[in-house]
Amino acid sequence: MNESKENNYSVGWYRVPLPKELRRELNARSDVKGFMQAGGYLGLMFLSGLGVFLVWQNLSWPWLIPALFIHGTICSFQINAVHELVHGTVFKTKWLNTLFVHFFAFFGWINHRFFWASHTEHHKYTLHDPHDMEVVLPIKFSLSGFMKGAFINIPGIQWKLKRDFKTACGMWNNDWEKQLCEGQKRRHAICNWSRILIGGHLLIAVVSIYFGLWIVPIIVSLNFAYGGALLFFLNNTQHVGLQDHTTDFRLNSRTFYTNPVFRFLYWNMNYHIEHHMYASVPCYNLSKLHEAIKSELPPTPNGLIQTWFHIIGVLYRQQEEPGYQYEPKIPESEFRKAV
User: Fold this and answer.
1) Contact call for residues 72 and 227 (beta carbons, < 8 A)
2) What element of type H or E holds 107?
3) Whole-angstrom distance, CA of residue 333 vs CA of residue 248
4) CA proximity to 269, closest of 50, 29, 79, 54
5) Phi first, then psi: what are they for 241, rounded to 5°?
6) Contact 292, 273 (CB under 8 A)
7) What is the distance, to the nearest Å, from the Cα of residue 46 to the centroid of all Cα atoms in its chain?
8) pTM higher than 0.90 for the full model?
C-alpha cells in the first residue's frame, strides 16, 4: 500500500483565491486549442523528422548533425506533451487526450502509466518526501551530465532499455516504483506498456534495417537520446534550489517568462507555480492564470538567462552552505492581511 495513504498524510496547500466565474473560465478545455498545441507540436516533430530523412537521402553525412540536433531538440519535449495529456486537460474530448498521450508516450519511449502514478503523488505532496519521490531536493547538476543529455545521451539509452526490460518482466527499478506499483491494479498496465515499447521499437528497428533504412530507428525510436540541451534548461527550472516541506507552491515552484517558441515547446510549463496551484487549468490558459494572480506571486524572472543566473547563484551557495534553500519573496496581499 502507498505509504502516504497508509499514514493519511495530507498537505494543506495555500492557493491564491480566484472568483468562481474566472476559475470556470480558466478551467475550460478546448479541442481547437488542444489541436493547436498537440497537433502543432506533432507537426513540428513530423517536419523535423522528414527533414532528417531528406538530408540523409540527399546530402553528405555532416549535414545530418544539425538536422538531428533540431529533431532531437523538438522531440525531447515529448515528456512535456505526455505530462499535459495525462492531466487530461489538453482536449475537451477525453478520447483525444488518450489518443495523443499514447502516441507521444510511444515515440518518446515514456511509460505514461507509471509517470501518471508518480506525478499524481508529486502534485498532492510536492517536495514532501517520502510521499513525493518524483522530485527530491537538493537537486545537483554536473557539466558531464549536461553534456551527455545535450548532445548524445548514451547512458540515457542504456537506462531506458534497462528500466523497461525490468518493468516488462514485472520487476521494479527502485523503492519509489515498488511503492507505487506493487500490489496495485495499475501494475499490469505499467508492465504491459513497457512490453509494447520494447516490442514496438524492436519491430521498427528490424523492418527498417531489413529495407536499408537505418536512419528510421534513429529518427523514430532514439529521438529522446540527442539534442536535449534546451529541454535541460527549461525543465530543470521547476523546483531546483527552492523550499521543500512547505505548504505554499510559491515557495517550492518557479515561474519565469520566456519567448513564444520556447513556451510552445515547453507546453507553457514555465508557469509552474500556476500549474501546481491550479492543476486543472489547461496549459494554454496558464498565462491568463498568471495575469490573474501575479500580484501575489514572487518576482518573475524574465528569460532563461536571468532565471539560470539566479539558479546558479543558489546552487553555488548550497555548495558553500549545505541545507540552504532559497525563499522567494511573497507580496503581502489584501486577502492575506484580512486573514
Assistant:
1) yes
2) helix 94-107
3) 14
4) 79
5) 80, 0
6) no
7) 20
8) yes
